[in-house]
Design goal:
The chain has 10 helices and 9 strands. By secondary structure, the protein is of the alpha/beta class. The longest helix is centred in the C-terminal third of the chain and has 33 residues.
Length: about 325
C-alpha cells in the first residue's frame, strides 16, 4: 500500500490546527476507493503559543499525526526542509496550516501522481483576502524574478504541491542555509502538472508574513538564483563612467577655449551625490551576495530538531537530531 505524507509547517497556528485536522480527516474518509496509508506530519517551527500542545493532543487520538518540534523558529523554508527529511511517504503533499489550501485539491493531485507526474503544483486562481497593493507587488516581483533568472519561476504558485519521492530525495540533497524552495522546485526539474485552485481566506489567526518578511523573501529569491543584480550594477557603473568621461572631455575643451571661470557648484554637488549613491547601491548589492557566502561558509544545518514523534525516518541525515519515538 502506498503511503502519503502531508507536510504542514506551523508557526503560531494554535487556532486553526484542529479545524485543519478535521478537514483533512473528512477529505481522506470521503474517498475510500483511494487505498493509501496516511501520515500527517506537522513541523512546529518554534511556535510561542499552544501549537505544539494541540499537535500532541491530536497525536493522542490519531497515530497518523506525527510531528517535528524544532528548537526555535528557523523560518518556513527550513521547516519545509525538515518536512522533506522526516516524511516517510511515497509522495508528500505540502500545505499551509491556515486552511487557505483546500484539502479537497489533494485528491486531484493524487490522481495526476498516479498518472506518472512527479511534481503536481497548485496555481492560485485568486489570492484570498490579500490587499490590492500586496497583489500588485507580488505580480511585479514575479515579473522581475522571471527576467532575472534562467530557470522558470511559476507565477502565483506557492508551496501547495505534491512531490514524488524522487523529488523529495533530490530536495534533500540541497542543504544550503539561504533557502528559496520555490526556486528549488523549478531547479530539480521532473515531470510537472498544474492544478488551478481558489485560495481561501484564513479561518483563524493572523498571518506571520509581514511586509518586511515578504521583502526579505523577495530579495532572497532574486539573489539565490541569479547574479543579475551584480550585472545591473556593472552596467550602471559602465554607463556612468562613459558619461563621466565624455563630460570630462567636454569640460577640458571648454576650459581651453573659454577659460575656467568659477561656476557650476550646484552641478558639482549633484554629480558627487549621484555617483556616491551609485557606489553605495553597488556596495549594497555586493554585500547581499557576500552575506550569503558568509552564511553558507559556516556549513550549519538548516534547522535543529528538539523532538520527533512518528514513523521511523527513512533518512539517517545528521540533521535528524532530537528525541525519536
Amino acid at each position: 500500500m502506498k503511503k502519503i505524507s502531508i507536510i504542514i509547517p506551523a508557526y503560531n497556528e494554535e487556532q486553526p490546527l484542529r479545524l485543519l485536522y478535521d478537514e483533512l480527516v473528512k477529505t481522506i474518509t470521503l474517498y475510500p476507493e483511494l487505498r493509501y496509508e496516511w501520515e500527517i506530519l506537522f513541523i512546529n517551527d518554534g511556535s510561542r503559543d499552544g501549537t505544539l500542545s494541540v499537535i500532541k493532543d491530536l497525536r493522542e487520538i490519531d497515530k497518523r499525526v506525527c510531528y517535528v518540534d524544532l528548537s526555535r523558529n528557523f523560518g518556513k523554508e527550513a521547516a519545509m526542509c525538515a518536512g522533506f527529511d522526516y516524511a516517510t511517504g511515497d509522495c508528500a503533499i505540502i500545505m499551509d496550516a491556515d486552511l487557505q489550501h483546500p484539502p479537497q485539491v489533494m485528491m486531484e493531485m493524487l490522481k495526476f501522481w498516479e498518472e506518472g507526474y512527479e511534481d503536481v503544483y497548485g496555481k492560485r486562481n485568486t489570492r484570498g483576502d490579500e490587499s490590492w497593493l500586496r497583489k500588485c507587488l507580488s505580480k511585479l516581483y514575479y515579473r522581475v524574478l522571471q527576467k532575472a533568472t534562467r530557470i522558470e519561476i511559476l507565477e502565483n504558485v506557492g508551496d501547495f504541491r505534491l512531490l514524488d519521492r524522487k523529488c523529495i530525495e533530490a530536495l534533500k540533497q540541497l542543504r544550503e542555509t539561504e533557502r528559496y524552495t520555490k526556486g528549488m522546485y523549478a531547479w530539480i526539474g521532473f515531470r510537472k502538472k498544474e492544478i488551478i485552485f481558489d485560495t481561501a481566506n484564513r479561518i483563524a489567526g493572523k498571518s506571520s508574513w509581514t511586509f518586511y518578511r515578504l521583502v526579505h523573501l523577495a530579495i532572497d529569491g532574486i539573489t539565490s538564483y541569479s547574479t543579475f543584480p551584480l550585472r545591473i550594477s556593472t552596467i550602471i557603473g559602465t554607463i556612468v563612467s562613459v558619461i563621466a568621461f565624455i563630460y570630462l572631455i567636454f569640460i577640458f575643451i571648454k576650459t581651453i577655449i573659454y577659460g575656467d571661470p568659477i561656476q557650476g557648484f550646484p552641478t558639482l554637488i549633484l554629480t558627487i551625490l549621484f555617483l556616491g549613491g551609485i557606489q553605495l547601491l553597488s556596495l549594497g548589492i555586493i554585500g547581499e551576495y557576500l552575506g550569503k557566502i558568509f552564511n553558507e561558509s559556516k556549513n550549519r544545518p538548516p534547522y535543529i530538531t528538539r523532538e520527533y514523534k512518528g514513523s521511523p525516518a527513512k533518512s539517517s541525515h545528521p540533521d535528524h537530531q532530537g528525541i525519536h519515538e
